[in-house]
Amino acid sequence: MLAASLKPAPSLAAFSPSARRSPAASASFPFPARLNQRPLLSAAATAEGTGTPASQGDAFSYSYTAAAAPPIDEARLAQFAADWEAARADKEQGNILTLPVLRSNSGGLIVKYNSLQGFVPNPLLSPAHWCKDPKRPIQDVTKDLVGTSISVKVSEVNEEERKLFFSEKDASWSTYSSQIKIGDIYDGIVGSVFHYGAFVHLRFPDGLYHLTGLVHLSEVSWDLVQDVQDFLNEGDAVKVKVVNVDTAKSRIALSIRQLEEDPLLETLDKVIPLEADQSPDRVMSPSEVELLPGLDGICNELLQEDGIIDVQFGRQALEKRVVSQDLELWLSNVPAKDNKFTLLARAGRQVQEVYLTTSLDQEGIKKAVQRVLGRVP
């Protein structure tokens, strides 16, 4: 069964057959939650101990085993209570804090907040650390942060359960998101890759990677993308374009394909530049032309339509990308000359000019071709 459709150039009204390209990404994308399941710190945040992560998919949980602590006098209890209150206030006000890193473990960093200790899980660290050496395990990266200070925001405060969590990612968003504008182009490093897209860390003018955005499946390539991992892998260096910024949800939508010209907008002159002595509508002799499969049948049917006087063939070429495996017809932007319109027949990477001499206008051509396509098996 031959599948065929007539499609116009971008400047003309769309014909009825549906386009075969993947739909463009909408303004919002199915980003995962910043952390699908909040980490659980099951011990006093003021106690010494070690944390061990357990992960499954995008959900993370943390156990924190407290060591024996000396008795706490009333003055210290009052200080703890005051610091828990201060932590709640910092969370409500969205304050950015600079806290010293006391220790690291396989799950993240333990930081000092006044008289309390809090936890920064690895997923809530800024990508700036990992992107310095993407091949290095995150546990090795966090060891280097012990003894330094990092900028964070309070992400969770629960005095009863002794949970005090911080996010460096939230602090980075507050600091750098105002610099992100739609249309900006960034160098990036691919982080996590999922079936729906890939997260890319963005390189800022200071040379560090402060924010992360999503390249949705539909924005990876103009080619058909069924598995993102066929195109992108963790650690790949890429260029991306910002296509949407959702400040309310702290999300950035990115595109790789929009940095490349849509192959459907390429003209044959770009595929085969004309020589100085060539005419753009030079008719090819039968010996020079190897018609695309099914094109001869369509053209014979076109000649049966009222108002279509002649069908001839022009240049052939191979395009950069596969537009469609099926035979498709596109109405060219080339202006009609002496009632001769130009169609582009495409199948796979092959493209063929077809010259249609007719007394019909553009709308009449569309209707005639649609009738033909409905008859061709």
UniProtKB/TrEMBL annotation:
PROSITE patterns assigned to the protein according to its UniProt record, in alphabetical order: S1
Name listed for the protein in its UniProt record: S1 motif domain-containing protein
Biological processes annotated in GO: maturation of 5S rRNA
Record domain S1 motif: where: 94-169, 183-257
Organism lineage string: Eukaryota, Viridiplantae, Streptophyta, Embryophyta, Tracheophyta
SUPFAM superfamilies: Nucleic acid-binding proteins
A Pfam entry, by short name: S1
GO MF assignments: mRNA binding
InterPro entries the record matches: NA-bd_OB-fold (IPR012340), Ribosomal_protein_S1 (IPR052757), S1_domain (IPR003029)
GO cellular component, one term: chloroplast
